[in-house]
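**User:** Everyone, produce a chain:

**Assistant:**
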Amino acid sequence: MKFSIGIVCFPSFGGSGVVASELARGLAERGHDAHLLSTARPGRITGDEPGLTFHEIRVPDYPLFEHAPYGLAVASKIVDVCRAHRLDLLQVHYAVPHVASGLLAKQLLGVQAPLLVTSLHGTDVTRTGSDPSYRSITSAAIAASDGITVPSAWLRDEARARLQLPSDLPIEVIANFVDSERFAPPQARDRARLQSLFPRAEEGPVLFHVSNFRPVKRTGDLIEVLGLLRRHLPARLVLVGDGPDRRLVEERAKSLGLDGQIHFLGKQASFVEWLRHADAFLLPSECESFGVAALEALAAGVPVFGYRVGGLPEVVPAAVGRLVEPFDVQALATAVRAALETPGASERLGSAARTHVLERYRREPALDRYERYFRELLLRRPPEKR
């Protein structure tokens, strides 16, 4: 049973954009008619994927508006794509404001409307969605969706509590996934690959971090951990991504005399070629509903170290890394140091990390689950709408 699906997402470097892009690509590869709607082409999409069509959402700039009406532009583009391609399903990633836009489009389309599936990702529940400015409309639109998915049991429970959703509202838990062929360990780790980023620094272990540098990622803690580690080890830090807190990180590193020990790679989709040679991955987030960046590191055989928050314990058990009490940078640095200084510890954790991903988070089984879930929803439609 093939279907036509529209997937709406932010083109961000964060997890929701990554998951949406990879899902669109995967469904297209399986013969479904996939349409990706966003304000820019996400970095994981090249434009050459057979069966996958990208539709740019344009948000006009008009002097009357202090803030451009993005949500209306999304709804309008959904209507246009649905009318042109007769979509069976519309999946919106990150609820604010996409679920309200999807519901508005569905009402406008009437009998031609696709089923609406809302995929929650984290801060659309814990921050923006539960903010009083958005909660009423966001909660009502989520409850009116034909299907709801979350990546972790923790986020399912948080969504019900924070958004005051009905206790009997079905919410499907489908874990995020990773392309384990792309994110894979090298045949042999070559620290020299990363050493080239620090031509004047002493050779030593290299830590890695990927994020959108928002406050929730607590990227300032990365520098504190690095400073503590360098009292014992000549550690360096590679940072991928960009965002509002990047300058804070740069200024803190300079104030501690560590600016020569960090390297910003910026936003790029090909960072796996650097990641797979790292010694440890740091994720000091205030909250993670799942942790796509952590999953990609584990797939590459790199152990993950972070705080015990949100859904991260579901992804990072003790066998593949270490999670410590939230916001204790000393404990985090100590955990990383122990793994790096204990002979063979980092290698054992990395090997277990790869096995963990292959057993639980491979791309194909996840695509199977999404396909099965979407088909179940489609079969529930009234006969006249099938």
